[in-house]
Specification:
This protein has helices at 43-51, 93-97, 99-103, 108-121, 137-149, 167-184, 195-201, 219-224, 229-234, 263-268, and strands at residues 4-12, 18-27, 32-36, 58-63, 66-67, 78-81, 155-159, 187-192, 204-209, 212-217, 241-248, 251-254, 257-260, 278-284, 289-291, 301-312, 317-323, 326-327, 345-349, 360-365, 371-373. It is α+β, with helices and mostly antiparallel strands. Pfam families: ABC_tran, OB_MalK. GO terms for molecular function: ABC-type transporter activity; ATP binding; ATP hydrolysis activity.
Amino acid sequence: MAEVVLENICKTYGNSFKAIQNLNLEIADGEFLILVGPSGCGKSTALRMIAGLEDITSGHLYIGGRDVVDMAPKDRDIAMVFQSYALYPHMTVFENIGFSMRLAGKKKAERKQRVDEIAKTLQLTELLDSKPANLSGGQRQRVAMGRAMVREPAAFLMDEPLSNLDAKLRVQMRAEIASLQRQLGVTTIYVTHDQTEAMTMGDRVAVMKGGVLQQVDTPKRLYDAPVNAFVAGFIGSPSMNLFEAELSRGTLQAPGFALQLPDTVLSERPALRGYDGRKIVFGARPEDLYDSTLASGRDHQAIPAEVVTVEELGSEHVVHLRLDAVPVDSGDPDAVEELGGLSNAVARFEPASDVHARSRIDVAVDCSKLHFFDPETHLAIR
């Protein structure tokens, strides 16, 4: 096991494209860190630089206290699990897992003992004589992990290992990988574009955009205290609703409604007072917008909305709404405007709600849970 430290890491390609800009990260010994972000944000490039598969233009990379920038991949004491599994099709599961030990000249008895231990941990014992073609996607992924584990590396690097699996299997494998990582205690850096994976698996999550690290924190802190509108919009599913409004004497004024901010909000965010009389961006999580007819006993204000469509999921209704307010782009290049622009907000209603498409309703808002951002920089207002 080892600490992994990135100091001012940059990656510039021959066409002057800056894929990574001054990336600074410290991954503690035994930590499970998730690198997440939209397509093209630089997360896979960063992982490949740690692995030695991409040259580092400038900066320092330490694994276990050693600067490995000029070291070959084989000398960095890391193991990588790829999206495509990269198993040898002509070899059995046993041979795939033990391949690196065979290359290292380990004796047959030692190889068998180690592979048997790993197979037991990964529940692959009954499949050791099988070929990859006869395995399910989840089983292949476990074999790929076993091949990485057999080397007992200082760190695991995982590049979107679940993206080829179906939705149900992804949920199962998320839990298995997180549990296995805790059991092994190996420093792990895991790349994904799926923020649900990021929020459910990692000790900390590093959010990237355009080659720049935006925020690194625990999943809860990322969700509760995003540093900017991009992180706010990217983390969470459905994503945070962001709108433009004018702040006037503690009241948010939008074209179709006004929201009076509680005194606690203004006292907890003293910088808000400097925006009086100015435009501001405010955000509301879908779970903080709810059916006003079911809001008895809750401290809330209501805003008028049109229901565009309702997704009844059993445990909740995901309600797509049209509000008379100007939506704000969070800067996520992968974001797709809901229903071709017919809706500009998403809410989570209780299953008891009987709202239906094309109806006009009052949506209750928990103003104590709102987030606020500068309209120019999109930085959070504290």
